[in-house]
Fold this sequence. Notes:
The protein is of the alpha/beta class. It has helices at 10-24, 40-53, 65-77, 101-109, 130-138, 176-181, 211-218, 221-235, 247-259, 273-285, 318-326, 342-350, 365-369, 444-457, 461-471, 476-494, and strands spanning 29-33, 58-62, 83-85, 96-100, 118-122, 143-148, 169-172, 187-192, 204-205, 208-209, 240-243, 264-267, 290-293, 308-311, 356-361, 400-401, 408-409, 437-440.
Amino acid sequence: MSSSMIALRPYQITGVTQIRAAYSGGARAVLFVSPTGSGKTVVFCYIAQNARARGTRTWILVHREELLNQTSRALDMLGVPHGLIAPGYTPSGEGIQVASVNTLVRRVENGRVGDVDLIVIDEAHHTTAGTWKRILQARPKARLLGVTATPARLDGQGLGVHVGGVFDALVMGPSVRELIDDGYLCRPAVYAPPTGLDLSDVRMRGGDYATGELVRRVDKPTITGDAVAHYRKLCDGAPAIAFCASVEHAKHVAHQFRAAGYQAERIEGNMPDGQRRGLIDALGDGRLHVLTSCEIVSEGTDIPVVAAAILLRPTASMPLYLQQVGRALRPVYPQGADLSTREGRLAAIAASIKPRAIILDHVGNVFRHGMPDETREWTLDGKPRTPGKGKAQEPDIRVKQCPRCYAAHAPAPVCPACGYQYQPENIAPRQVEGELREVTEVQAELLRRERRREVGRAKTLDELRAIAAARGYKPQWAEYVWKARQRKQLTKLAL
């Protein structure tokens, strides 16, 4: 099959054109950002196949065995010849090689692989890790193309050269909301508790909550029991992934689901590759209802049939949160549906077994990081920016919970789930202990303005620290805001 037979969606064609323009403009390392489920694999396969036709040698780097096999299957389906660099595979002379990072780094350092012209880096937010950097430093003349849904390290730091990363150009694909509106992703329905966990005294490590302390907070029968009860109530029997705080936590959650009569298993990083693949396949074909995980399926893994994401691990990392909720957004179109138009795709999703994606957020991550389809404008600095403004985006409650059906949605005067009409004066939803409520988008602007006014009224560093603790922000937030104020005051004095 020739590269011309790889059919690209309109937004993918735009992405390819912009990537090429970035290289033509002098960039060496381009980062392409596009949401989970948007078809980033198709984009880089198209680019690699066209590069192969010009004699360009290409490596496609992945960091897990299932991602290697997943990429290889995608290339096969697209008719793109390639070789595999991983344990158990015979070396080949194909111009495109899909490589396991851990295997490739050894062969590069042992001189067992030749030169390369283009290095494609899947899940490119990993590029600052030592293994990846050793490969890239060994081939300094190769062009780089990174692809990711979240262009920041899990600690929030950026991927640009100027902040310790490797990329010198950023190409933004479509937003999650645009893909939902065009019928390429499912619309999320987010259910969350009316009050979140108090994590103000949980220490941070590597940009996120320290795992040991976090596990003690969330691995409790009451929380796990809530997860089972709400799964039964809101998406009974639907294929779901539960994201847990540790391997032991994942084990406990799987046990609770099995005790309730569901088919559930945990997946671990130290499992043999075949066993992990078998569990993922079992979730996809209905033999499993729930797969519990500590990060193994947080990114990259393509399981379109997943209808629900169960969040049982609080995280301070927006990239990790977006990777997790993104697992549930892929649509499952009915066989034979007309997908050639926006109207046809939307009708197909509405008629499918998965008309919407269910997010059961037991730990309130949506209140730390916003709705899954909230517009975010990323930069190579790492922190997403508020659209139309130059300031780094602060965590804001951009969600509303319907007091009648407990649905969650973006700002609107009417609940899209049950039709309840909101009254402007009723900003706070009625709280029911232990009840997850669907998050809506109704009064987000009023809430956000009030939260910003609250920050503005804080006159001391201690007051800012109190706000950070109450909102579950990182401890460094207060210091950052305080120092920014001091710099602003100094600038005014200088003028």
